[in-house]
Design brief:
With 444 residues, this protein is an all-alpha fold. Helix content is 70%, strand content 1%. Strands 1-2 form a two-stranded antiparallel sheet.
Length: 444
């Protein structure tokens, strides 16, 4: 593997540009988009206990309405394969999404991917078979693949380096908000109107967001008058072909980190409802509360994890050392999850999983930010897309493996053991390859 082409000492890194007015409005829009993204993808996980039945009994709101709806009868292996279809499409889509976002920019590119995933999410309501779900999930994965490359690129454009992990933590907590809203809304909709209606609940949110983004978002250079002239166009470095970015050790540190740890979050989203349903005998009407508690706590972890490097900086660390220290803290906090598979207490499991999901979100906010620490913003979307591909491939592998493990053993213990130790291994690889998050390329 190629060594770093050019090392830039800390003293040579340009001084942070002035903070831009309006950047927190941008962060709020990224938060909302990520919330919608995760609501769409989590619906199937919440409905898994229902889809595994032969029928779904509804609570009629109006006398005379039908009270039974035909379901799909999913097995664990079939569910794992459907999840893998989403992950494979996500991996394929993000290859092109990152480059597309870098070429056309966030203002045009973000609404395109949002519209695609929203149509695919609502398309789930039209399917009548396991194969149909696989197709719908594949299309959903293609659309959703563009969210994080676009959001990370917008963050790199609008925020100075010292604020990026906090901004990333805030918008990344939208994943938690989506995961909170989904179990609060989806069971009620499914019980009263059927599981098909549950897949239609977020389309309007997406349409409103696309209009909002298109009206408000500008790149900092184009928004010069709006931001009172506090930013000037920077000279662009010579553009590298996308494949040359794979020659940097820093790229591979990020890729391997995402490959090992992203599948854990996918596991939380898609398999925790089934875990609570089978382990603690919760039906659809009672499934929402433990999930809401877990993801509420994890939202705090996302924001606190994004702030944590600034806390370490105040203790005298450099920014990059503080970033790595924050990631180590998060990796250690995940470790107790190893015991979750054997717990008899539902609220004990909720406590361990709340800590683990919170630590994951703190980790995620910081590993995303390592890309803008190591690469100029012109390449951030592309490098992030490499990591997203790796995370999606890892998620596809874990989805298939998890389905077979659960169908054969009916035990979540092996899955929780992997999830607990993945972060420590990922951090060791990142530190080894990136060596203190040194720059791979200078700013222009």
């Amino acid at each position: 593997m190629k060594e770093t082409i050019q090392h830039v000492d800390q003293a040579e890194v340009p001084i942070d540009p002035p903070a831009l007015p309006g950047r927190w409005t941008i962060c709020a829009m990224l938060f909302v988009a990520t919330s919608i993204n995760y609501m769409d993808r989590q619906v199937i996980g919440i409905l898994k206990p229902v889809l595994a039945q032969s029928t779904l009994h509804l609570v009629p709101l109006i006398p005379g309405w039908p009270t039974v709806e035909q379901s799909i009868s999913l097995s664990e292996v079939q569910f794992g394969n459907i999840i893998a279809a989403f992950q494979i499409a996500y991996a394929l889509g993000v290859v092109f999404a990152g480059r597309m976002i870098d070429r056309v920019g966030c203002r045009k590119g973000y609404p395109i991917v949002t519209g695609l995933w929203s149509l695919a999410a609502m398309g789930h309501a039209l399917v009548h078979s396991v194969f149909g779900f696989g197709v719908a999930r594949f299309l959903l994965g293609l659309g959703e693949s563009g969210n994080f490359p676009a959001a990370i690129k917008a963050t790199a454009e609008w925020f100075p380096p010292k604020e990026r992990s906090l901004a990333t933590g805030i918008f990344n907590s939208g994943a938690n908000m989506g995961a909170i809203l989904a179990p609060a809304i989806v069971p009620w909709v499914a019980l009263h109107f059927g599981w098909r209606a549950a897949f239609l609940t977020t389309g309007l949110f997406s349409a409103i967001w696309i209009v909002w983004w298109s009206m408000k978002y500008r790149t900092p250079v184009l928004a010069k008058d709006w931001s009172k002239g506090m930013v000037e166009a920077l000279p662009r470095p010579p553009q590298l072909a996308w494949w040359r970015l794979l020659g940097f050790r820093q790229t591979w540190g990020f890729i391997l980190g995402k490959f090992l740890t992203d599948p854990v979050w996918w596991f939380f989203l898609f398999w925790l409802p089934g875990y609570f349903s089978t382990r603690f005998k919760l039906d659809l009407a009672h499934l929402g509360l433990p999930l809401i508690v877990v993801y509420n706590v994890s939202a705090v972890g996302s924001i606190c994890g994004g702030w944590l490097p600034r806390g370490y900086v105040r203790l005298g660390m450099t920014l990059k050392r503080a970033r790595l220290a924050a990631m180590l803290t998060c990796a250690c906090l995940v470790l107790p999850m190893a015991f979750a598979g054997g717990l008899q207490s539902m609220w004990g499991a909720v406590a361990l999983l709340s800590l683990a999901t919170s630590a994951h979100q703190g980790w995620s906010a910081n590993i995303f930010t390592t890309v803008s620490d190591m690469f100029p913003h012109e390449y951030v979307g592309t490098v992030v897309s490499f990591g997203q591909v790796a995370g999606a491939v890892g998620g596809a592998i874990l989805g298939v493996v998890a389905g077979h493990i659960l169908q054969l053993t009916h035990s979540y213990v092996p899955l929780f053991l992997y999830a607990a130790f993945a972060y420590v291994v990922a951090l060791v690889l990142l530190r080894t390859l990136a060596r203190g998050l040194e720059r791979a390329l200078p700013e222009g």
